[in-house]
Amino acid sequence: MARVKYYSIIVPMLLAWLITILPSRASPNPNGDGYVRDACSVTRYPDLCIRSLSSFSSTAKHSPSKWARAGVSVAIGEAKRVARSLYVLRKLSVRDFGSQVEDVATWVSAALTDEDTCLDGFDEQRGKRIKPLINRVSNVTYMTSNALALINKLATAGPECLKN
């Protein structure tokens, strides 16, 4: 049960961070280049968007719904690959403790920053549909902040805590 809760905290936090830094494994599709460029023109990282979504051009074409699904699909796929970060936390070693914890803290801190930026985008939005979304993002932000505090506590405890 604890593993599921931890996984549900880490994956959303790292998802935003991953989207900004990981290269895509998708191969470019030169036939639908105009479609993907048009779809990605609204993104913060259009080059990454084009690389990661170009393989969907022939099916998504001008459909915002299909592009959104493709974007989420690719993001989830990348997030699943982050299971290696959980592996790092599960396999902390006395020898590499400092760098391991520092890496995880950096990832979580970056995710927290992205969540705050996401919330900033809703500053002028109101309505029944926006409030639940803001509440969910806020909740993830709070959980991320808690996770970061626990990671910092782990760092303060040092590698000696691994001997328990």
UniProtKB/TrEMBL annotation:
Q: What are the Pectinesterase inhibitor domain coordinates in residue numbering?
A: 31-150
**Which positions make up the signal peptide?**
1-26
Q: Quick check: keyword Signal in the entry?
A: yes
Q: What UniProt keywords are attached to this protein's entry?
A: Signal
Output the SMART domains linked to this UniProt entry: PMEI
Coiled-coil positions are none
Cross-referenced CDD domains: PMEI-like_3
Among Gene3D superfamilies, the record links this protein to: Invertase/pectin methylesterase inhibitor family protein (1.20.140.40)
Pfam families reported in the protein's UniProt record? PMEI (PF04043)
- Top-level taxon of origin: Eukaryota
Keyword Protein biosynthesis attributed: no
Molecular function in Gene Ontology: enzyme inhibitor activity
Q: Which NCBIfam families does the record cross-reference, listed alphabetically?
A: PME_inhib
Report what the protein is called.
Pectinesterase inhibitor 6
